[in-house]
């Protein structure tokens, strides 16, 4: 047992592997709000490998502010009631490497979707941010999602020339 | 860093290399690591002996940032989210699953040793014969109609989690010829902040497959690898019922102060 205040070395991560599909994804995981809600937007994209091939066995988790910029701290992400905005969701990629969330537009100063990415072949999770158009800091123009007809699109490229900028928290 | 060329070597199902070739690659990376003398506590994203990592690892170093706003807050899970019965993987069907019944318990703390309270822990695993219920798993070992292999719980007020399950078996995979994974349980963890998200695997002490497994060895530091190995604990073992293992998990440090947390 360790005393509080003494710095501990973190437990290392490991790949999510190929078989998480029966365990982690759940009904409504990607629907932070029902897609039929008038102010619902879609946040979606593809996960691609270094050859540009879609990754069909990735998992994307999203954390975001509410439209008013507040941090949602309500429980209920695993058993959604259709009304409570928890600001967190989970979506596996499909056969074409595509993931999608039905959510609300994040608010606040420089609004972004915080993302955690897992995949078979990826030894440890990756973090990134998808900023709303115009909100990304100057040094990371590629971290901007693009607007489309129902929301925003953001591809995650694990490797290659257009490799996504991944983040490490200080 | 060289750009890998897509080809048979990167096909995760090609099973082209022998165990001896994979073991040689593991040994040469280990030798370079020891010679460099710089401690690494996380797995390497770029670890070619794990073939499916070749096209799936970033080649650029991550950008260092201070977490902002939303990243300082993990999602919240409550009693509505998780049924207490979900922590027992042996009661999800009509009969008893086949295999060695065991309890896995431990404590989740942050980098400062503070307990992670009332937070979600998810596990998934193969059955006693080394078979996952997942459709993609075509290993011809028996499926167990009484075992799914997925569980959830919330940590208690002191950060403890506890699962009742069956000891998973080792299983073959297609990284290379005659590749076998050491027995393991996948763990998914949240801290108090989004930044602390962790997915990892728990192993069992003394597994003969450790040295041969490129996923376990993708953590090049022995002390760091050891942090993924549970301890047999006879005080967790119960009379005429189940064996017991203990495994504590440390997440990365948190950025919020205790004061902010108390304001909830």
TrEMBL record, chain A:
It comes from the Bacteria. Keywords: Dioxygenase, Oxidoreductase. SUPFAM superfamilies: Aromatic compound dioxygenase (SSF49482). The keyword Oxidoreductase applies. The keyword Oxidoreductase applies. Residues 40-108 form the Intradiol ring-cleavage dioxygenases domain. It holds the Pfam family Dioxygenase_C. InterPro entries: Intradiol_dOase_C, Intradiol_dOase_core, Intradiol_RC_Dioxygenase. Belongs to the intradiol ring-cleavage dioxygenase family. PANTHER family: DIOXYGENASE, PUTATIVE (AFU_ORTHOLOGUE AFUA_2G02910)-RELATED, PROTOCATECHUATE 3,4-DIOXYGENASE ALPHA CHAIN. This is Protocatechuate 3,4-dioxygenase subunit alpha. It comes from Nocardioides mangrovi.
TrEMBL record, chain B:
It is an enzyme of class 1 (oxidoreductase). The keyword Oxidoreductase applies. Coiled coil: none annotated. Its EC number is 1.13.11.3. GO terms for molecular function: protocatechuate 3,4-dioxygenase activity. Pfam families: Dioxygenase_C, PCDO_beta_N. Belongs to the intradiol ring-cleavage dioxygenase family. This is Protocatechuate 3,4-dioxygenase subunit beta. It comes from Nocardioides mangrovi. The gene is pcaH.
């Amino acid at each position: 047992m360790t005393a509080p205040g003494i710095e501990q070395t973190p437990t290392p991560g490991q790949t999510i592997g190929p078989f998480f599909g029966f365990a982690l994804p759940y009904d409504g995981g990607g629907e932070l709000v029902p897609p039929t809600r008038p102010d619902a937007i879609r946040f979606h994209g593809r996960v691609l490998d270094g050859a540009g091939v879609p990754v069909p066995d990735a998992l994307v988790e999203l954390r975001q502010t509410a439209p008013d910029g507040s941090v949602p701290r309500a429980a209920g992400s695993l058993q959604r009631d259709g009304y409570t905005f928890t600001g967190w969701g989970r979506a596996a990629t499909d056969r074409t490497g595509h993931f999608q969330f039905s959510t609300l537009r994040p608010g606040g100063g420089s609004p972004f979707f915080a993302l955690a990415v897992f995949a078979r072949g990826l030894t440890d999770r990756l973090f990134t941010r998808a900023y709303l158009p115009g909100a990304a800091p100057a040094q990371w123009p590629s971290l901007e999602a693009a607007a489309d007809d129902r929301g925003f699109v953001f591809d995650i490229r694990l490797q290659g020339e257009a490799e996504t900028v991944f983040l490490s928290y200080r | 860093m060289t750009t890998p060329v897509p080809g048979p070597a990167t096909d995760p199902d090609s099973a082209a290399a022998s165990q001896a070739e994979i073991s040689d690659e593991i040994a040469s990376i280990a030798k370079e690591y020891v010679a460099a003398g710089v401690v690494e506590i996380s797995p390497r994203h770029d670890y070619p002996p794990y073939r499916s990592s070749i096209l799936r690892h970033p080649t650029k170093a991550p950008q260092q940032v201070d977490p902002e706003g939303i990243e300082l807050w993990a999602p919240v899970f409550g009693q509505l989210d998780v049924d207490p019965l979900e922590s027992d993987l042996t009661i999800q069907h009509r009969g008893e699953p086949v295999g060695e019944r065991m309890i896995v318990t431990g404590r989740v703390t942050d980098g400062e040793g503070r307990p992670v309270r009332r937070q979600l822990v998810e596990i998934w695993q193969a059955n006693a014969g080394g078979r996952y219920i997942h459709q993609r798993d075509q290993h011809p070992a028996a499926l167990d109609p009484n075992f799914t292999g997925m569980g959830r719980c919330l940590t208690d007020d002191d950060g403890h989690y506890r699962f009742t399950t069956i000891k998973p078996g080792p299983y073959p995979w297609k990284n290379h010829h005659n590749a076998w994974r050491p027995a393991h349980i996948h763990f998914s963890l949240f801290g108090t902040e989004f930044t602390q998200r962790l997915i990892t695997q728990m192993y069992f002490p003394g597994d003969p497959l450790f040295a041969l497994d490129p996923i376990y060895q993708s953590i090049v530091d022995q002390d760091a690898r050891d942090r993924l190995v549970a301890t047999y604990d006879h005080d967790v073992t119960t009379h005429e019922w189940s064996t017991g293992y203990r495994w504590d998990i440390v997440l990365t440090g948190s950025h919020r102060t205790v004061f902010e947390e108390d304001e909830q």
